[in-house]
Amino acid sequence: MSATYQQLPAALKSFGDSSSSFALPPPSFYKRRNARWRSPEAAVVPNFHLPMRSFEVKNRTFAEDIKSLRLITAIKTPYLPDGRFDLEAYDSLVHMQVENGVEGVIVGGTTGEGQLMSWDEHIMLIGHTVNCFGGSIKVIGNTGSNSTREAIHATEQGFAVGMHAALHINPYYGKTSLEGMISHFDSVLPMGPTIIYNVPSRTGQDIPPSVIYAAAESPNLAGVKECVGNDRVEQYTSKGIVVWSGNDDQCHDSRWDHDATGVISVTSNLVPGLMRELMFAGKNPSLNSKLMPLIEWLFKEPNPIGLNTALAQLGVVRPVCRLPYVPLRLAKRVEFVNIVKAIGRQHFVGERDVQALDDDDFILVGRY
């Protein structure tokens, strides 16, 4: 019989023995045996919101790791005919970005149609991207919302599944006051590296410099994706705030004339190698001019309509659109074929010949 059993009180030894009555040991027994036991300390800092992410060094990404990125792609989300994510096509797209020197991807942004995703889909895609590519490229999850409660919850989940940084927009449609914007960003900045995204054409409200200066007091502000223009870009860069151009047609001048760190790009979905050259190889007005017809074509209709059409015609995604997005008209699809030939098919993603798809080739999905 084991020594441990011998040390038990008689009452515990007889437990389960029908011939004896069972009585719990006195409270002094537990106190005596547990005298050296101490409750574990909770992994929180008093009065400080700690998100669901590890403080282990191996899992930590800091704002400084994000600030140096020059080329970040707002990656497209492809679909299967029933409207679900086409993860095989998605992985191929991200792999082509990595191969061509892109340093980061925005997952579930406007270009990736995060606005058409459930939060379950959104967080799953962030986690999938981290799992498959997190060692090769920085994964920035769009976890912003016009609801502060949703932004907090989604950002906690995004960091929990391993994203390196969060992208946050100001509350759109309903709008708020300047003080409300500051409080909104203050609620999410403590969680980890954050890029603030200013695009008044979509939100209906500019994020003025006073709000960015307040956010810049946090060490977690990695920088700003700025779509207002290069004067605003220089206003921030002159004060040491990192800026990425949010306008592909202005990014060359932003980078080389106004000290932007780089660009968060839509066009790099299609020509990642050329966009890397534009951001890394010094001033190149000739290349910038060469790309301008493509950039202008992409934004004739609200993004991501042009990109969806282009990637389908390049054969790298299925021609499936979640409504309300529909493909560009046939004349514009033919125009894209000519643009590809002018720039050179070898510079575009995919290997199939570019083709002008017919209307009947596209699948429009309303319920998924």
TrEMBL record:
Keywords: Amino-acid biosynthesis, Diaminopimelate biosynthesis, Lyase, Lysine biosynthesis, Schiff base. Pathway: Amino-acid biosynthesis; L-lysine biosynthesis via DAP pathway; (S)-tetrahydrodipicolinate from L-aspartate: step 3/4. GO terms for molecular function: 4-hydroxy-tetrahydrodipicolinate synthase activity. GO terms for biological process: diaminopimelate biosynthetic process; lysine biosynthetic process. Pfam families: DHDPS. Coiled coil: none annotated. It is an enzyme of class 4 (lyase). It comes from the Eukaryota. Catalyzes the condensation of (S)-aspartate-beta-semialdehyde [(S)-ASA] and pyruvate to 4-hydroxy-tetrahydrodipicolinate (HTPA). This is 4-hydroxy-tetrahydrodipicolinate synthase.
